[in-house]
Amino acid sequence: MENCLFCRIINREIPSSIVYEDDEILAFNDISPQAPVHILLIPKQHIRSTEEITEVNKQIAGRLISAASEIARQKGIEGYRLVFNCGESAGQSVFHLHCHLLGGRDFNWPPG
Ligand code: AMP
Ligand code: ZN
Known about the structure:
Order of helices and strands: HEEEHEE
Bound molecules: adenosine monophosphate, zinc ion
Strand content: 15-25%
Helix content: 10-25%
CATH superfamily: HIT-like
């Protein structure tokens, strides 16, 4: 989708530091890391947010989560956090579905 930052990253119009790619998913380092490991996993299909997950495309959410856990395993990260910010009030700033993989430090609960 035009003017979508993450679609532009998928199309290589904006550079990124890619850590994993397959036919459906791209994973790259977050430009503003909030932990020693901070990777974003996105579907190549433009899905705005979790609210656009349907019966037809719901398998992509599982793909994002399983790819995130595989990356964490390969990096030897023991505890990690997977975050989907859903909607502006929850901190979503880019409206292309993404999963944050955060690791390499301890995390508090409840989150801020
Ligand atoms: P969210 O606030 O959940 O929508 O997450 C969007 C994330 O995208 C933030 O953690 C940003 O740091 C990250 N981000 C924004 N621009 C870029 C970029 N050009 N490359 C990598 N990550 C980015
Ligand atoms: Zn997009």
